[in-house]
Amino acid sequence: MKKTFLVLSLFVSFATLNAQENELVIKEGSVLVLGEPSVNGYEHIDFPRKNIILKRGAVANFNNLAGEKVVVKNIGTDNLTALLERLDGRPFFRFYPKVSSDIETALAKGELKYINHKKQEAIVQP
């Protein structure tokens, strides 16, 4: 009897925890923040390679982008890719006004973060 009560109470508590998860819908115009890059730069945000940036005459320092606010300008038909633009309107590395990204994996890996910094699961909708 005690085991049955314990199992039932655990089941009810886990069911209520799953019911309290918040979901955030990302759509065009959503504002996100760039997180810290990994050692090799951003993996899920498609910035040009460092040698291409250097050939065009800009400094390829990805650490300076951390904390920059970006706006989702366009979401692809597959709901996985999105075009990002800086909120202040300046181009990335002086020449690239927009970059594409795999938005769900970038959010999961911490390359993109929400403004309110709440850890929420993202559902991308056009």
In short:
The chain has 126 residues and is an alpha+beta fold.
List the helices and strands and how they pair.
Blueprint: H1 2-19, E1 23-26, E2 31-34, E3 45-46, H2 50-55, E4 69-75, E5 81-86, E6 98-102, H3 103-109, E7 112-114, E8 121-124
Keywords: Signal
Signal peptide: 1-19
Q: Which features characterize this protein?
A:
six-stranded antiparallel sheet, alpha+beta, 126 residues
Account of the 3D structure:
Keywords: Signal. The structure is a single chain. The protein has 126 residues and is α+β, with helices and mostly antiparallel strands. The chain has one domain (22-124). Helix content is 25%, strand content 28%. A six-stranded antiparallel sheet has the order 3-6-5-4-2-7. Strands 1-8 form a two-stranded parallel ribbon.
